[in-house]
Each structure stands twice: as C-alpha cells, then as structure tokens.
Amino acid sequence: MGTNTGRATAMALALLCAAAVAGCSGGAGGAGTPARTSGAPEELAAASASATVSPSPSATAVGKVSARSTSLGKILVDGEGRTLYLFEADKRNKSTCTGDCVKVWPPLIVTGKPEAGTGGVKGNLLSTTTRDNGAKQVTYNGHPLYRFTGDHKPGDTNGQGDFWSHDTWYVLGTSGKKNTTPQQNTGGGY
Known about the structure:
By secondary structure, this protein is α+β, with helices and mostly antiparallel strands.
C-alpha cells in the first residue's frame, strides 16, 4: 500500500506541476503551448488537489556542488545532496527558465563563488551567470543549474527527462555533459 500511495503522490505532484506551469514560456515554446508532459494516468488527477509543491530554495553565500552515485550514475548535487539539472533550452551561460518555470525549477542561486565539493566535481567547470533579475546562478560547464520541486529528498531524480515547452531537463555528470539515461520507476520510494 505504501508503494502505491507514494507512486500516487509522486504522480499527483507531477500533474500539479504541469497545471501550475501551463503558461510557462521558454525555449522554442511560448504562451499557449503545452508546457510539460507527464506520463501520469488520468485517474490520479484528482489526487493532485492534496499535493503540495516545496518552496523554492533561497540563495546561499557559497554554492557547493558535489557528485552523488544514483540509479542514473554519478550526478551533480547541491550542498544538501539535492539533484541538479540542466535545461536544454538554455544557451551557454544563459538561463531561459523564467516566470512560472522557476516556481517548479528553482535556479541554484548564490551570493558568493560556487565551490567544488566531493565526488569528482571539477572546480574549473563551476562558475556563475547573472539572471535577468541580477541574481547569480551557478553554472557547470556553461549549463545553468536548477533543482526540481518534485524531488522530495536528497537522491531523488524525478525531474530526469521531463519535457517543458519543447525542451527537456536532464541531470549532469561530473564531465559537465547531460545524462540522458531514462528515469527508473522506483515506486515513489516511500
């Protein structure tokens, strides 16, 4: 029962996120285009009313980026062990995720210089880019980094392969390249 409840909660959150960002523009898409695709069954739509979205993390003085071994391989994580993602619509050192998009995909924001943590993260690939609002977003190999509000705990990779306004979200390896390994069905992990 716990696995089914966890799976239902995760799927309901995915539907809630999809509804919340339906007007997101970014990448090749614009207003009125399908914002995000979800493989959630229709019968779980009613469960979305009880799901909540985690608040966006605030800026930290120093953003530590480490690597963690997961079912997708060794991937980048923030200082709290939360998975970091790239968005294919972004240009080198330039984020295209704005507006409703950042409510679901909060950028990794710092006030100081990002640091390489453990696991093989390369300090020479870490930098920042300035967002339109003046905030400093951490980049790795030129990719602006984001968290996903659908990840509930360190090690979750629920955003892997999500489709948003004609582009896709992926985890990154320590090489700084996207990892396109399909997300494994873990049964929600609860």
